[in-house]
Specification:
The complex is a heterodimer of chains A (230) and B (190).
Chain A: H1 22-25, E1 32-33, H2 38-41, E2 70-79, E3 89-94, E4 119-123, E5 129-135, E6 140-141, E7 149-150, E8 153-158, E9 167-172, H3 183-186, H4 191-195, E10 200-201, E11 212-215, E12 218-220
Parallel strand pairs in A: 2-11, 2-12
Antiparallel strand pairs in A: 2-5, 3-4, 3-8, 6-7, 8-9, 10-11
Chain B: H1 16-20, E1 37-45, E2 55-60, E3 86-90, E4 96-102, E5 118-125, E6 128-138, E7 162-166, E8 169-178, E9 188-189
Parallel strand pairs in B: 1-8, 6-7
Antiparallel strand pairs in B: 1-4, 2-3, 2-5, 5-6, 7-8
Classes of the chains: A mainly beta (230), B mainly beta (190).
């Protein structure tokens, strides 16, 4: 059963010169249309035995608490037919509150936080819901062009139900004034599609006296006729 | 309900943190898996031939009988438990990474015709806004001539989808991915 295909304007342009690295790395030949076979509609069922409850709390596992604004990041993972994707692996990584990654290639002169690594993972529940506890990441410079800054973001990776549905994306925070200046976000032609990468403040999920919550729902491609599960 | 899938974004240069520092997989099929052993060296090059040292490669493949370890495959129950089918590695300073696996069996296409043995390969990286999907076939495999998917690829570009063996090192295969420019690898719209 093939997976659905969607308007390409809702996905980023692969060659987008304002994001300089695409000019050396984006294919110039048109992609070859591949009618789906079992190779595309199957995919790795991975990580289920290794994901611990503690993995979704990025503020734990270190000697102390990380610096910065503690936040909850939550949402649902659905297919394009609106069905929740259950027990699907969500992996995230991000900079610390000062805008620095715990990564040897990040030389931004902002402090590392000994209490923050910035990686987490979770499985969605039966309702397709996930929740992370983390620190609001900072913006950081990235040398793409003169005075280039990335808006604060969290990277998301989802394996989904099939290799065709695999998604890597980034979640942004509402109202960031850097959006119009960010080639990565602007590489998506469709304005609504860009807007959907921006999380929303979710007061209902907020824990009073403890942490604000941001909601980020994620939609993966689904089968043309989605079989009803369980 | 009709929803639009979330837009892709690049993995960026720091994906190791979330994807490979603790969660890489080089062994796609364990030593106990049935089938011909393959040690696959992948290499990623950019448009000017420079090794891409910050890419991530994911591989998804069938077992030696062509069964996928996934519920959408009607033969999933027969799938070799030694072949998980999934691999994920970052490239090194030479743009390379090495997977341990087996040559997969033939998997039917939608019309029932058999495809040639292949690995499904997805390349992520800085400057790659959406994971690039390609396939690694085995050069010299007789089934290549009758693969309905390879037949969709212009003949002069099929060579870009071939992993090549080293006659001096049985079991060693090499697959280059050229992201763009001269000899650009065929990428698929899946």
């Amino acid at each position: 059963m093939p997976y659905r295909r969607h308007d390409s304007n809702t996905q980023p342009r692969s060659l987008y010169p304002p994001y300089r690295a695409t000019t050396e790395r984006a294919p110039r030949q048109p992609l070859i249309f591949l009618p789906h076979t079992l190779s595309e509609i199957t995919g790795p069922v991975y990580g289920h035995n290794q994901v611990l409850e503690a993995d979704r709390d990025l503020t734990r596992g270190h000697p102390g608490e990380p610096l910065g604004e503690r936040i909850i990041v939550t949402g649902r993972v659905l297919d394009d037919g609106g069905c929740p994707l259950r027990r699907t692996l969500v992996e995230i990584w991000q900079a610390n509150s000062a805008g620095r990654y715990y990564h040897q290639k990040d030389d931004h002169p902002a402090p590392l936080d000994p209490n923050f690594t910035g990686a987490g993972r979770a499985l969605t529940d039966l309702d397709g819901r996930y929740e992370f506890i983390t620190i609001k990441p900072g913006a950081y410079p990235w040398r793409n062009h003169e005075n280039a800054w990335r808006p604060a973001h969290i990277h998301f990776s989802l394996l989904g139900p099939a290799f065709t549905a695999r998604l890597v994306t980034q979640m942004y925070f509402p109202g960031d004034p850097l959006f119009p200046h960010d080639p990565m976000l602007q590489s998506i032609p469709d304005e609504e599609a860009r807007r959907r990468l921006v999380s929303k403040l979710d007061l209902d999920a907020t824990r009073p006296e403890w942490a604000l919550a941001y909601r980020f729902d994620i939609v993966l491609r689904g089968c043309e006729a989605t079989p009803f599960e369980e | 309900m009709d929803l639009i899938p979330t837009a892709s974004q690049t993995v960026g240069p720091f994906f190791h943190l979330g994807c490979t520092t603790n969660h890489s997989i080089s062994c796609i099929a364990s030593p106990t898996a049935s089938g011909e052993r393959v040690r696959l060296t992948c290499r990623v090059l950019d448009g000017v031939g420079v090794a891409v040292d910050d890419a991530m490669i994911e591989i998804w493949q069938a077992d030696s009988d062509g069964n996928y370890s996934h519920p959408a495959d009607p033969r999933v129950q027969k799938c070799d438990p030694g072949c998980g089918g999934f691999g994920r590695l970052p490239t090194d300073l030479n743009g390379m990474c090495v997977f341990e696996t087996i040559r997969p069996g033939r998997v039917p296409a939608a019309d029932g015709r058999l495809q040639a043995p292949h690995l499904n390969v997805c390349v992520f990286g800085r400057g790659i806004m959406k994971g690039l999907q390609t396939r690694a076939y085995f050069a010299g495999d007789q089934a290549n001539d009758e693969c309905p998917i390879l037949a969709l690829v212009p003949e002069e570009r099929r060579a870009t989808l071939m992993a090549r063996s080293d006659p001096g090192k049985p079991g060693d295969w090499y697959f280059d991915v050229r992201l763009c420019g001269q000899g650009e690898t065929v990428f698929f719209d899946i």
